[in-house]
Write a structure and sequence with these properties.
It contains 15 helices and 18 strands. By secondary structure, it is α/β, with parallel strands linked by helices. α5 runs parallel beside α15, α6 packs across α15 and α8 runs parallel beside α9. The longest helix has 20 residues.
């Protein structure tokens, strides 16, 4: 006989109830549960939603709404005991301990008294934490059903939390609006995609482009777009290599505050940047993706996904310093830096974990400043407070990272591309550590990503005016 209990709801009529009968469910609290409850109830108390605010409260962290636990009691009463057809009459509750992200809560109701005349049932109700602590305790009075009900479980819609301001491009454009545009040397934008992004970024008042490329090819791309180059500063260059050299010279002379890659290979542009007569500083040049995904409550940075293939410890220190600069430029005063590895424990067999430990000690000794470092952290511990809690990781960074430092280019690139193509991430790519920020776009990047990268470069250029490398 097929077991249909998982797909079917069946109640207990009053005649089937006895004192001592009980039912229970278990639920692990996640941040998504808290966000959904807040969205439905309208209870936006920052104690439940804002990690920074919650850290300063007596609970020292985010906790569930008290009525979230109460709703689970209602779920047991309405689906199991007595089940469908039950009418809620009264409920008393005492909130005795907080429920935190990652806690597995056992919710139990137990029949304590029955009154036949009105089919009333009294039930003791508890929500218990894994260590036996009772978080919620109370008593419910219900009218039990008099007829048997058996029905299929409803299929609920998949609900996705979209954080406020999750339209990253519009949020970014709003943030930079009112700032003076920056002069940007655009290197070899000889295809329709890259030239269109340049013209749109100009219309958004983000950049004043200096187009460095073969003029004839630029005019062909503009004609294909139905656009005009009239009024634009065009510097004729024989080919892509010459365009890269000319753009770097413009930056060295202070004529532009940023570079932007067009339709040439990254190696061509970066080769000109890192030459001895290029744009090098004492810092290692590195790449950052500024990303936003619907499932995470804030923008975050992934580094390095495009420049440094297998960075050394010293190079990782510079990669982190560059990422912290980017975080400061976008308004994050004390970014939380998660140094990623496969595990959260230090192992001599996994060099990434040793580097993470050394980098954290460097931060303790003032060699890396401006951010809060922790590592090694596995990816789940870096972005999920529930995962960190379950694994017993107590950290101001775990579950709330602003910067994710990948151990090498391959892992950083794969992580970023997975988030873009499977996680609905929007992104902006930027290179830091040179004298000027470099907008480094991929041929496959969307128009939105290119515009966002220009907005980020504007913020960085303004940041470098007051804090040059």
């Amino acid at each position: 006989m097929t077991d249909t209990s998982l797909n079917t709801l069946r109640n207990r009529t009053f005649a089937e109830l006895a004192v001592g009968d009980s039912a229970r469910i278990e639920r692990v609290l996640s941040m998504r549960d808290i966000q959904l409850f807040a969205a439905v109830s309208g209870d936006l108390n920052p104690q439940h939603l804002d990690p920074d605010f919650a850290a300063g409260t007596p609970f020292q962290g985010i906790i569930a709404h008290g009525m979230w636990g109460a709703s689970l009691i209602s779920a047991v009463l309405g689906t199991q005991l007595p089940g469908p057809g039950t009418i809620y009459l009264d409920q008393s509750l005492s909130f005795r301990a907080p429920v935190r992200i990652g806690d597995r809560v056992t919710v139990e109701v137990r029949v304590t008294a029955l009154e036949a005349r009105h089919r009333h049932a009294r039930l003791a109700c508890t929500c218990t934490l894994p260590d036996g602590t009772i978080a919620i305790q109370g008593e419910a009075l219900v009218q039990a059903p008099d007829k048997t009900v058996e029905c299929p479980r409803s299929t609920l819609p998949d609900i996705r939390i979209q954080p406020s301001g999750a339209d990253s491009l519009q949020t970014l454009l709003t943030h930079v609006r009112g700032r003076d545009p920056i002069r940007v040397a655009v290197v070899h934008s000889c295809d329709e995609v890259s030239l269109r992004a340049v013209l749109e970024a100009r219309r958004e008042n983000l950049i004043e482009p200096v187009l460095v490329a073969p003029r004839a090819r630029l005019e062909q791309a503009a004609q294909a777009l139905g656009a005009s180059l009239e009024g634009l500063d065009v510097r004729d260059a024989a080919h892509s290599h010459a365009a890269a050299d000319m753009a770097v010279a413009l930056a060295r002379a202070g004529e532009v505050e940023a570079l932007m890659k067009g339709s040439l290979h990254t190696d061509e542009l970066m080769g000109a940047v890192v030459r001895a007569d290029g744009l090098r500083t004492k810092r290692r040049v590195s790449h950052c993706y500024l990303m936003q995904v619907p499932q995470y409550p804030r923008p975050f940075i992934i580094t390095d996904a495009a420049i440094n293939i297998a960075p050394t410890l010293e190079q990782k220190a510079d990669i982190i310093r560059n990422a912290i600069d980017l975080a400061h430029a976008i308004g994050v005063a004390q970014p939380r830096v998660a140094i990623l590895a496969a595990v959260e424990t230090i192992s001599t067999g996994m060099p990434a974990t040793l580097d993470a430990a050394a980098l954290c000690k460097m931060a303790d000794r003032g060699q890396i400043t401006g951010g809060l470092l922790d590592g090694s952290l596995a990816f789940d511990n870096a972005v999920s407070q529930a995962a960190a809690h379950i694994k017993g990781i107590r950290s101001d960074v775990a579950g709330r990272a602003d910067i994710l430092v990948a151990p090498d280019l391959e892992s950083g690139n794969m992580l970023a591309k997975q988030l873009m193509y499977l996680g609905d991430a929007t992104s902006a790519g930027i290179v830091l550590g040179a004298r000027v920020p470099i907008i480094l776009t991929s041929r496959a990047d969307s128009y939105e990503s290119r515009i966002a990268s220009c907005a980020v470069a504007l913020l960085l250029a303004h940041h470098y005016r007051s804090t040059p490398l």
